[in-house]
Amino acid sequence: MQSQLSRELCLINLMHFYGLPYIWGGSGPVGYDCSGLVEAILKDLGMPLPGRMNAHGIFQYYNMAPKLTMLQADLGDLAFFGPSLDAIDHVGFCLGYGLMFEAAHGDHTCTTKEIALARGAMVKVNPIQHRKDLVAILKMPLVWPPTSAPTSEPA
After folding, report:
1. 20 to 30 A from 67, CA-CA: which of 4, 77, 82, 94?
2. How far apart are CA 32 and CA 47, in angstroms?
3. How many domains does the chain have?
4. pLDDT tier at 8, thresholds 50, 70, 90
């Protein structure tokens, strides 16, 4: 699938989510849980999911995608976490360089902005390795347009 955005515009677009609170069951615009955030990002990339899904549902939807190692993960790939492939409970949007964009540090009791802020539960960038329960990274069907080289004006 050809993305409508360049890599640079994708990263810029992600910034409007940055710092928003983790709200259990949240799918925006005032707060997100992990799957609501990934769902919103994929929609922005022209890849809407067929309805609201939790992290395990997103994994099942894309389960036929190629599996990657952490070193292979690139911008747009999805990292899944949990005790096993049958019990995925978290998803993050890979940025490359071992990093992911995620709605983090919340749980089912994190239901208001105030609770989220008190816990530091928010949308942020973290190393994929900060969680010890990584079970899969899936390659998303994104094709990024080539980055245009800067042009120089003749002197």
Report:
1. 4
2. 18
3. 1
4. confident
User: Any idea how long the chain is?
Assistant: 155
How far is Cα 51 from Cα 127, in angstroms, rounded to an integer? 29
Q: What is the pTM of this model?
A: 0.89
Question: What is the reported pLDDT for 2?
Answer: 45
Q: Which whole number is the average pLDDT over 122-145?
A: 92
Residue 144 in any domain: the answer is: no
Residue closest to 141 by CA, chosen among 46, 11, 54 = 46
- Per DSSP, 128 falls in state G
Q: Which domain holds residue 75?
A: 7-138
Q: Strand order in 90-96's β-sheet?
A: 122-127, 99-104, 90-96, 78-81, 134-138
Q: What CA–CA distances, in Å, run from 18 to 68, 100, 101?
A: 25, 12, 9
